[in-house]
Structure formats: structure tokens, C-alpha cells
Design brief:
By secondary structure, the chain is α/β, with parallel strands linked by helices. The chain has a single domain, classed as Alpha/Beta hydrolase fold, catalytic domain (Rossmann fold). The chain is built from twelve helices and ten strands. It has an eight-stranded mixed β-sheet with strand order 3-4-6-5-7-8-9-10, with helices on both faces. Strands 1-2 form a two-stranded antiparallel ribbon. Strand 5, helix 5 (125-135) and strand 6 form a beta-alpha-beta unit. The chain starts with a helix and ends with a helix. The mean pLDDT is 94.
């Protein structure tokens, strides 16, 4: 794997024409052309991903392989880890702080990807550190409980409890409780958007929401990207189906409002929302539909469509300069609201 990481690092810094030669015939789906660096890494990953994944452990083992090539945190960002008591569970958090720390800083609560089944609070280490640097904010990443060890909606309950915990302990963390944003990718996007609706009538509500390639519905209808992007890297239609079956066994809670922000009727008066979607992503269409719906409901929305990137691009900064530019753009937009 060390050799693979070296290859990936070198690929990122090669001239574009050499990258295109190595990548071969461009991968084009729905008129979008995949970033050639990601195309090359997808080929490398294909040799490491099992074709016989059945159990949760099988999928988690493959997720570990993806994490090995994830970009690392920025060195100048300080971190510390701790455990916090969130009502009925004890959860790990990682707190990221920029160089310049002062009292009553803005904060970002971050919820990681993984279909509510995979990964943990360290998966997006680089992106969380980037958010901390660009936004000059403290970022708190939560290791919420995952399915099937717990049942839906307990993972989201953990995240709601983190919001309440930080609000109650804002002075201890040096945080301005009126400047706390929510952020997350994929399933973490689902969590952030669900909380934004649940908290909108609170005295103190999120100042902004920032999500990337969010999962916003359990419905599989009217989404052409589930067909055209069925075999994309790193998220495939088969993995989408696995998440649905694992989080909602026998379809228990599959229509729960917390799992379906796209279907909700109460999407007015939300905080400003930054939403990023990717061209090579089975759940691309549902993210785009959600962006359109919240715009029509009169909310402040900044929607960025990165047509040449894939699902999970937030962790792929070690692979592609295009990813770096996308991540910087997203972080910079969130800064404007903090």
C-alpha cells in the first residue's frame, strides 16, 4: 500500500498530458468526463476491492483500503481527541483548531460519510483541517454510532445530542454558540440537512449548513444517475443497495422523515446552505433535486456541481488537484457565512 500511495502522489504532480496518456480513453457519463487522476486510481482500487462482499465486515475492510489513500490533515492545524457523554452514549470526537485561537470562535460540527455504516470521525481528517484553516473556526468531528450495531435513527440522535452538548458547553470550548455551522458529506450530509430542519425553530439555530454529495432520500425512483453511475468509484449502486438494506432491515424506518429530507414539506426558513454534488455519483440526481427544491422554498442556496469528480471527493485530495480546488471552494463559501 505504501507503493500505491507513492504512485498516487506522483500522479497528482505529473503534467496533465502525461496523466491523460496513463488514464487512457476518457470515462464519460451523462456528458461529464471523469478527472483522469481519479480514473487512474479507480483502476488501482478495482484490484483491491473484493467482488464477493457480503457482510458488513467485508464492506468495512474495503473502506479501510480507501482510507489509506485519503489525504492527511494539514500540519498547522492543532487537534485533540476526547470522549463526550451524549445522553445515552459515550462518543469520540476530534477537535480541530487553527493557529489563531480566541474566545467565542465560530465552530463547525462535522459528520462523516459512510452510509451510516462505514468510516469514523477521522475519515475526513484533511477536509476538517482545511475547514478549520480556511474558516478560522474550530471543527468538531463526531464518531456517531453506526448501523447495524444500533438502529436508525440513533446515529442521527447522536449528532443532535452533540449539537445540544456543544451549545451547553460552548464556553468550555471557546465557541460562540450563535456561530455554529453543520457540515458533512454523503450520509453526513443527510445528518446535517436533517438537523437543520429539526433545529430551525430553536432559539439558537445553525448559522449555515455545508454538505457534499448528500444522501437525501431512500427512494430509488426517478434518479437516472443510479443507472448511469451504477459502477462508479468509489460508490456503486451495489453499495447504495447495501446501505439501504443494512440501515433499514426489512424496510424498517425506511420512510422515516429523518432519512428523507427530499420528501419533507417543511423546508422553508432554513439556514444558508452550501451543497456540492459530483458528476460521477449514483446519488447525484437526488442531491441536485434537493438543491432545486430548497431554492424554490426561498432559502439561500449555493449549489456547486463538480461534474468531473466522484462521490467521496472530499477525502481524495491526495489524488487530484481538481479535488483540492473543489474542497477549497466549498470551505471558502462556508467562511463567508461564519
Amino acid at each position: 500500500m505504501i507503493f500505491d500511495k507513492l504512485i498516487i502522489y506522483i500522479l497528482k504532480h505529473l503534467p496533465k498530458f502525461i496523466i491523460r496518456l496513463i488514464a487512457g480513453k476518457p470515462e464519460i457519463i451523462d456528458g461529464n468526463q471523469l478527472d483522469p487522476n481519479i480514473q487512474i486510481v479507480a483502476k488501482i482500487a478495482a484490484n483491491k476491492i473484493s467482488n464477493n462482499r457480503i457482510t458488513v465486515e467485508d464492506y468495512r475492510n474495503d473502506a479501510i483500503e480507501l482510507e489509506k489513500i485519503a489525504a492527511k490533515k494539514l500540519k498547522e492545524i492543532k487537534i485533540y481527541d476526547q470522549e463526550v457523554n451524549l445522553c445515552d452514549s459515550v462518543n469520540k470526537i476530534r477537535v480541530y483548531s487553527p493557529k489563531r485561537v480566541y474566545n467565542k470562535m465560530p465552530a463547525i460540527l462535522f459528520f462523516h460519510q459512510g452510509g451510516l455504516v462505514l468510516f469514523d470521525h477521522l475519515t475526513n481528517d484533511h477536509f476538517c483541517s482545511l475547514l478549520s484553516k480556511i474558516c478560522n473556526a474550530k471543527v468538531i468531528s463526531l464518531n456517531y454510532r453506526r448501523c447495524p450495531e444500533v438502529n436508525f435513527p440513533q446515529p442521527i440522535e447522536d449528532c443532535l445530542n452533540l449539537w445540544n452538548y456543544i451549545q451547553s458547553n460552548s464556553e468550555i470550548y471557546g465557541i460562540d454558540q450563535n456561530r455554529v455551522a453543520l457540515a458533512g458529506d454523503s450520509a453526513g450530509g443527510l445528518i446535517s440537512l436533517t438537523l437543520s430542519v429539526e433545529l430551525k425553530f430553536k432559539k439558537i439555530k445553525p448559522i449555515a449548513v455545508c454538505v457534499a454529495y448528500p444522501w437525501v432520500t431512500t427512494s430509488m425512483e426517478n434518479q437516472n444517475s443510479l443507472i448511469t453511475c451504477a459502477n462508479t468509484f468509489p460508490l456503486s449502486r451495489e453499495t447504495v443497495d447495501f446501505f439501504r438494506q443494512t440501515v433499514f432491515p426489512n424496510e424498517i424506518n425506511i420512510n422515516h422523515k429523518w432519512a428523507n429530507p427530499l420528501a419533507r414539506e417543511d423546508l422553508t426558513d432554513l439556514p444558508p446552505i452550501i451543497i456540492a454534488t459530483a458528476g460521477f455519483d449514483p446519488i447525484r440526481d437526488q442531491g441536485n433535486l434537493f438543491a432545486e427544491k430548497i431554492k424554490k422554498n426561498g432559502n439561500i442556496v449555493k449549489h456547486f456541481f463538480f461534474k468531473n469528480l466522484s462521490h467521496s471527493f472530499c477525502i481524495l485530495g491526495s489524488i487530484s488537484k481538481e479535488v483540492d480546488r473543489a474542497n477549497f471552494k466549498i470551505a471558502s463559501e462556508l467562511k463567508s457565512f461564519l
